[in-house]
Amino acid sequence: MKHLFKPQTLKWIVILLIVVLVVKLIWLAIEMTLLPTSGINQAEEVGGKSLYYRVNLSPNKASAPKKTLKQVPVGSIKDIELLAVYNAEDTTVVTVIYKGKSKVLGRGEKINGFTLEGAGSNYATFSKNGKVYRVNLIKGENGSTSGNGRSGISSRGKSSSTVEGEIVDAGDHKIVDRSLLSHYAQNMDDIYKNIGITEVKEGNTLKGFKITFVKRGSPFAKLGVQRGDIIKSINGQEINSYNAAFNVYKNIGNVENLTLVILRGNKEMELEYEIN
After folding, report:
1. What's this model's pTM, rounded to 2 decimal places?
2. Which terminus of the chain has fewer Cβ atoms in its 10 Å neighbourhood, N or C?
């Protein structure tokens, strides 16, 4: 039988195994004697690097101020004041004051995030986020609001049946006393006692305002306008929106000449006025 190892080689293998065994026994003895029995703390340095870093926060050092987010102010219905109301069967128009400026709104239009829904004789209703709000008409100097049942108009200020000022026919134009304009600028109700006006539309587009009646003998009758006339422009400004009409109305006291373009039947006409 042939041996796998020579006797000399086998001898060295046995010696090597004995040496390895002795070394392991010595290391085991050292480990049991010197190392702690509770195990190694994982927070100790391993390979010269900490597993975590401690931050020393000084109590005397003021902490950085926290950033605060600016809150966007939410619009309030109290920011809207109701100046005038026009409420007809098919039309609702109001004049409001918002941030010191007046604005004319039609039903469905928005201001300050609120949508005009409708109006009564002395109030308007607005909606926002599913809620309905009521804004009452501003009280006049006498502590009450005024209104006209037929035209559905309410406005701020005193109403007077006494109209001062005359209109003189000068042939190619008419001379209007400025005090007459001042009266109507301050008493909006008196306008609708003497003249009726309705809007003219083509589809959803406002094209002008039509005169539905003129009181006989009134200053408006002396101006030369007639029932059925459609007002197209005043002093070159097209009257195709309530804002345009209101802008003319609120500035009427400052003009010296007035040119009114109307459509009478199929004929366009110009009416000239001099303001004294």
Report:
1. 0.48
2. N
Instruction: Give the CATH number of domain 77-155.
Output: 2.30.30.830
Kindly report, as residue ranges, where domains of CATH 2.30.42.10 are found in the chain. Answer: 167-275
Contacts (Cβ under 8 Å, ≥6 apart) of 172: 272
Per-residue pLDDT in tens (0 to 9) along the chain, 276 residues: 555 556 666 677 777 777 767 767 776 666 555 555 555 454 444 455 555 556 555 555 555 555 554 444 457 899 999 988 876 666 778 888 898 888 888 888 899 999 998 888 788 999 998 898 999 987 654 444 444 333 334 444 444 455 667 888 888 899 988 888 777 766 666 777 888 888 888 887 888 889 999 999 888 999 999 999 999 999 888 888 777 777 777 677 677 888 999 999 999 999 999 988
Interacting residues of 85 by C-beta distance below 8 A, sequence separation 6+? 93, 94, 95, 119, 120, 121, 122, 123, 124, 137, 147, 152, 153, 154, 155
The segment(s) of the chain belonging to CATH 2.30.30.830 are 77-155
